[in-house]
Amino acid sequence: MATIRVNPDDPDPASIKRAAEIIRSGGLVAFPTETVYGLGANALDEDAVYGIFLIKGRPLWDPLIVHLSSTDMVKLVAKSVPDIFHPLSERFMPGPLTLVVEKSEIVPDITTAGLPTVAVRIPNHPVALALIRESGVPIAAPSANRFGRPSPTSAHHVLEDFGDSIDLLLDGGETKIGVESTVLDITRTPPVLLRPGGVSKEEIEEVVGRVEVFRGGTRVAPSPGMSPRHYAPRAEILLVDEEDMKKAAEDMVKKASGLLEKGLKVGVIAPDEVASFISNLPISVRKTGRWGEWGEMARRLFRELRSLDGEGADAIICILPPPRGIGLAIRDRLIRASFKGDPHSSLTIL
Ligand code: TXA
Ligand code: MG
């Protein structure tokens, strides 16, 4: 695959033109967004979209997000939008919020996995926006990782998963948010949070009032992609769930000692203060910023999971943030990564 480095704040037009030509001719382009890298194809081209599923190893029942460069493009892919679309788009678009609305005829079934709805998002990233604008079509893009692997937050991760099986990779450096967008179904009242992400539930509620949280419990999830085991590294994930920093450190040390006694190779992903408690043990420690700086943890989480996996860790101990703000999205990803049960069962995360 060809890789082109682009300035994330001001990509050069020739590179964007080359990428857009690939999209228009039915090819696949990986590109940075503010959340994670996406693997994009023309959302209106059935064959191109099929290519995304094929290369990711993604089941056809898992619908894709359609990326737009402005709210004007919504008319093209949505049959209609409910009133609350407008205050939400005004406040959060472009940004890490994906809205599920009724789809128009023009969107092929493969893009939405046969659902009558389509998920739309305007990414807040100059490279993604320029690419969509120059292509002149909506771009369907899941995260640019193989199905079930942690999402890619750098071009290197995309290469790790796909080698040269995609047509072009736009390398715009590391992504800023590090976890995926929030997915909100606004065809229901009150709206339903299907996936916590870059925009918090609290921020959304400031704009539209109460939001319901999808808690699983049915075998057919309204967001089919939210299967319990997801974002999974090869290593086993052990979670420490303590809001008190000292208790979290104690629990982590206990877990780490138990694993070391069994002769396992152990990694830890934890805030600086907590991580410092095990600095004398033979463990790979990844610090994620100070306790409470959960945005910093979000930025680094997938990168550290991939890197500890690459080092051959048997087990990774992670500290869970409290379930507020971006903490909710981190908890969701980590609980899924640690899930060991029946992959077709439902899982209550939030
Ligand atoms: O930040 C992001 O959202 C990244 C970047 C590349 O934009 N994309 C991303 O896409 O995370 P993906 O495919 O990894 O996750 C899309 C999620 C899945 O959980 C999927 O089930 C849900 O969105 N989704 C897509 N269309 C839907 C629909 N019509 N109804 C309900 N859920 C939908
Ligand atoms: Mg994904």
How would you characterize the overall build of this protein?
With 350 residues, the protein is of the alpha/beta class. The protein contains 12 helices and 16 strands. The strands form 2 sheets. Strands 1, 2, 3, 4, 5, 6, 7, 8, 9, 10, 11 and 12 form a 12-stranded mixed beta sheet that branches. A 4-stranded parallel beta sheet has the order 13-16-14-15, with helices on both faces. Helix 1 packs across helix 6 (126-135). Residues 217-221 have low confidence and may be disordered. The structure holds threonylcarbamoyladenylate (TXA) and magnesium ion. Magnesium ion binds at residues 142-143, 151.
Q: How would you summarize the topology of this molecule?
A:
Elements: E1 2-5, H1 13-24, E2 29-31, E3 38-42, H2 46-56, E4 65-67, H3 74-77, E5 78-80, H4 85-92, E6 97-103, H5 109-112, E7 117-121, H6 126-135, E8 139-140, H7 155-162, E9 168-171, E10 182-185, E11 192-195, H8 201-208, E12 212-213, E13 236-240, H9 245-261, E14 266-270, H10 272-275, E15 284-287, H11 294-310, E16 315-319, H12 327-338
Parallel strand pairs: 1-9, 2-9, 4-7, 6-10, 11-12, 13-16, 14-15, 14-16
Antiparallel strand pairs: 2-3, 3-8, 4-8, 5-6, 6-7, 10-11
Residues 33, 35-36, 38, 62-65, 96, 98, 100, 112, 115, 117-119, 121, 123, 141-143, 180-181, 183, 194-195, 222-226 line the site of threonylcarbamoyladenylate (TXA).
